[in-house]
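Private note to self, pasted from the team thread so I don't lose it. Backbone tokens:
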């Protein structure tokens, strides 16, 4: 019998499942050891949780299979517990040589995000902090349902336009599928494990109607 999908706010017991979705979405296992990939996933999760005022998790048979997080700048407050967990995850990465090397690459990505924001020429009062669906659960309309819940929240906050950052390391087509517009992009080349790789980074936005 097919299980009913439940949508609810993020709960602390969701963390390991959401971290696995993050690891899969950003392919962390492809350029780092399992331990570093796990630490990266939790760092990303808690970074997103410090940067949100709205969460929705899709749960099937008790297991989180999709998540969306958004932020209204006017309503955002950073939960101290998530900031603490973010710092702990970051410290875990810096304990290893591999972790420090990976973090150096990620610091350059933050610089690119700032450049994309400047290129857009727009001040966004709303942001999608994180949006992903497990590959095992795609095709069930979960992404659409999560996005519509976020859109309802943004409208309730009277946000005319919101944005998100993404790149070619993940399934960025999901954003276009939900009607978001690619506003600007930038490419750069990284060296990981002695190999050069070129990636493109995007800023997508969405203009709320009505």
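Design output:
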């Amino acid at each position: 019998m097919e299980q009913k999908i439940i949508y609810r706010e993020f709960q602390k017991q969701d963390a390991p499942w959401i971290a696995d979705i993050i690891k899969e979405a950003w392919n962390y296992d492809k350029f780092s050891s399992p331990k570093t990939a796990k630490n990266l996933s939790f760092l990303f999760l808690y970074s997103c949780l410090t940067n949100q005022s709205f969460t929705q998790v899709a749960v099937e048979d008790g297991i989180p299979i999709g998540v969306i997080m958004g932020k209204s700048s006017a309503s955002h407050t950073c939960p101290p517990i998530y900031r603490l967990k973010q710092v702990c995850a970051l410290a875990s990465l810096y304990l290893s040589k591999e972790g420090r090397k990976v973090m150096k690459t990620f610091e350059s990505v933050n610089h690119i995000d700032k450049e994309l924001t400047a290129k857009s020429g727009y001040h966004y009062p709303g942001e999608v902090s994180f949006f992903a669906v497990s590959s095992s659960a795609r095709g069930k309309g979960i992404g659409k349902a999560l996005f519509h819940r976020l859109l309802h929240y943004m409208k309730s906050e009277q946000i005319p336009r919101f944005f998100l950052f993404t790149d070619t390391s993940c399934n960025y087509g999901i954003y276009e599928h939900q009607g978001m517009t690619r506003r600007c992009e930038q490419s750069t080349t990284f060296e990981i494990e002695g190999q050069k790789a070129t990636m493109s980074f995007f800023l997508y936005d969405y203009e709320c109607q009505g």
